[in-house]
Amino acid sequence: MGAYIFRRLLLIIPTLLGIMLINFALVQFVPGGPIEQVIANMQGQGDVTAGFSGAGNEGGPNQTEGLGGAAGGGEKYLGARGLPPEFIAQLEKEFGLDKPPLERFLFMMGNYLRFDFGESYFRSEQVVDLIIDRLPVSISLGLWSTLLAYIISIPLGIRKAVKDGTRFDTWTSGAIIVAYAIPGFLFAILLLVLFAGGSYWQIFPFKGLVSEGWEEFGWFHKIYDYLWHITLPVLAMSISGFASLTLLTKNSFLDEIKKQYVTTARAKGLSESKVLYGHVFRNAMLIVIAGFPAVFISSFFGGSLIIEKVFTLDGLGLLGFEAAVARDYPLVFGTLFIFGLIGLLVGILSDLMYVFVDPRIDFEKREG
Length: 368
Known about the structure:
- The chain is mostly helical.
- It has helices at about 1-25, 35-45, 85-95, 100-115, 125-160, 165-180, 185-195, 220-240, 240-255, 260-265, 270-285, 285-290, 290-300, 305-310, 315-325, 330-355, 365.
- Helices cover about 70% and strands about 0% of the residues.
C-alpha cells in the first residue's frame, strides 16, 4: 500500500500542473481582463486611477506577475481609446502583463510551489489570508450538510431495503424524488420566508455565521449561536443531497441481501438483525462510507455559492465567483491551485477509506 500511495502522490504534480496550464491558457482568450476592469471603474467614476488599488503600491499586483491575458481586437484593451499609452503601459507593468504568457506561467508556478499566492489585485490582501478568512463558512456548510445527509440517508436506505416493495418504500421514494427536484436556492428562500422573519416566524437569523459580539460569549453560548445561525443554510444545502445517497445505500443492501452468504447465515438460524448488521452492513456500506471524503469535498467546493448568497455568508464559493467576475487572477488561480491540491489528496484519502473499511482490498495487486 505504501508504494501505491507514493505513486499517487507523485502523480499529483503533473496532474496539478496540467490543471493550472489548461486554465491559464483559457484565460488568455477570455475578454475583460484586470486592465479592462480598471478602465471600466475609471470611466464610471471619472478618475483615471479609480478602482486600481495596486498601482504603485509595494507588494501589489506585480507579486503575481500577471496571471491572466488580455482580449485582442482593434484596440488592445476594450475601452482604452483615448487613454495615454504611458498609463496603459504602467498598468501592464503593475499587473505583469508586459511579459510573455509562458514566462508569466512559469513565474506563477514557481511561486505556487512555495505556497506564495501573492496579493489580490483589487482587495489589497494576501490570497492566503482571504481564503483562511472564509474557510469557516465553507467548512461549516460542507461538513454539516454532508453529515446530515449521511445521518438521514443510511438509516433510511437500510429501512427501504428491508421494506423493499412495501408502502413505506413507495411513499419514501416519492418524498425523495420531490426533495431531489426542489432547487436548493428555492428551498433556501422558502426557509427564509417561513422561519427567518420573511412573512411568518422569526425563529432563525437570516444572515451571518455568528452574531455580533460572538467572541465575548461563553463557550456554551458560542456553540448555541453558531448552530442557530447554520441551521437554515445546512438544511437548504442538504435537501437534495441525501436523495442519491439514500438510493445508493438501499441498492447496496439489496445487492448484498441477495448473495449466497446471506442465505447461508439465515439457514444457520441467525436473527435477521444479526444477518443484516453483522454480515451485510460491512459489505454494503463499503462504497457509501468510503465515498464520504469525496461527498464532503464536492459540497465544500461547489455546492454553497447560491446558499452563501441567499444567507449573506462570506464563504469560498462566493469569494471565487466574485474573483472570477472581477478578473482577480491571483485570487482565481490561487484558489484553483489550493482546491485542486486538496481534491487530489482527497482522492487518495478515499482509496485509504476503502482499505480501512475492507482490508481485503489491495490497490497494488489491482494495478499489477
